[in-house]
Inverse folding.
């Protein structure tokens, strides 16, 4: 308590650490912006469970892995920004009159929860992001995100049991998108760079289609009889984009997975590039790329 009080007096803010965890492992990433070049450190710890749990967030092995990962990271105090599976977060975009304050927007979230979700609004956590209205418009677009309160409560308890607080929760696909742009430093994605796709070399392969900065959809691609290029085209069309409408595809290379060959997409006029995040940052290559990119993207958030 005394140390916390002294930190408060000195004005030392807690470190924001990006996180991803599931029943298999915990991945933490801290991005240090104090130098001219940002420095990325990562702590990855497998989960060892004595008694398997149907709910990963109630798993004692997960909590122990989080404690160990925090100790290895060597930062205190810490606040976590956690990426969660996108299926656990429901998003909706709507328009509101200009000039609404935060209290009125929060009330809007409540109304949208009643209209769109099959559960009572008191069982939902909601957040919103009000965007800038186009010139001459009287309505501003607002993006709303919902997550079941019981999930958020479990996440908070898991973090508290490890001695840290949970500051931010967001979709893993948003974090992967943000980390991809940060690593490539691709200014072409800002205005004319959408829509583009991110192909993650996992098992099974996952595809994220980014329509813009916040409108993201993800698909799982099976290793069945259908050709990979054909499956990508089907997923892209399901997202509302023509197969040849993508600006490019970024392939996130996973050290433990076989390389993905999408050269046929180039014949359709779609550019593609390969990105090896762990190799670029000179980090251990035994970390699953999806877990690392989620934690990295969350670690790039601003400390609230």
């Amino acid at each position: 308590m005394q140390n916390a009080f002294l930190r408060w007096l000195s004005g030392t803010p807690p470190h924001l650490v990006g996180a991803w965890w599931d029943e298999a492992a915990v991945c933490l990433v801290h991005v240090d912006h104090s130098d001219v070049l940002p420095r990325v450190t990562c702590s990855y710890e497998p989960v060892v469970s004595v008694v398997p749990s149907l709910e990963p967030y109630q798993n004692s092995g997960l909590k122990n892995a989080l404690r160990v990962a925090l100790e290895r990271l060597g930062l205190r105090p810490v606040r976590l920004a956690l990426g969660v599976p996108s299926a656990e977060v429901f998003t909706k975009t709507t328009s509101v009159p200009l000039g609404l304050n935060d209290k009125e927007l929060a009330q809007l979230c409540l109304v949208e929860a009643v209209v769109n979700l099959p559960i009572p609004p008191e069982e939902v956590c909601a957040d919103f992001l009000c965007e800038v209205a186009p010139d001459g418009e009287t309505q501003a677009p607002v993006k709303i995100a919902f997550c079941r309160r019981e999930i958020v409560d479990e996440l908070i308890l898991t973090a508290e049991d490890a001695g840290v607080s949970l500051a931010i929760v967001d979709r893993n696909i948003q974090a992967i998108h943000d980390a991809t742009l940060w690593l490539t430093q691709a200014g072409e994605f800002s205005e004319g760079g959408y829509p583009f796709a991110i192909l993650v070399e996992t098992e099974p392969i996952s595809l994220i289609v980014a329509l813009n900065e916040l409108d993201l959809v993800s698909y799982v691609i099976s290793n069945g009889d259908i050709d990979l290029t054909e499956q990508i085209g089907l997923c892209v069309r399901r997202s509302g984009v023509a197969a040849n409408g993508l600006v490019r595809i970024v392939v996130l290379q996973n050290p433990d997975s076989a390389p993905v060959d999408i050269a046929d997409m180039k014949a359709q006029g779609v550019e593609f590039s390969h990105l090896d995040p762990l190799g670029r940052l000179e980090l251990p290559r035994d970390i699953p790329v999806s877990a690392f990119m989620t934690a990295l993207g969350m670690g790039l958030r601003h400390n609230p």
About this structure: The first helix runs from residue 2 to 10. The chain has a mean pLDDT of 85. The domain at 184-289 is CATH 3.30.420 (Nucleotidyltransferase; domain 5). The first strand starts at residue 15 and ends at 21.
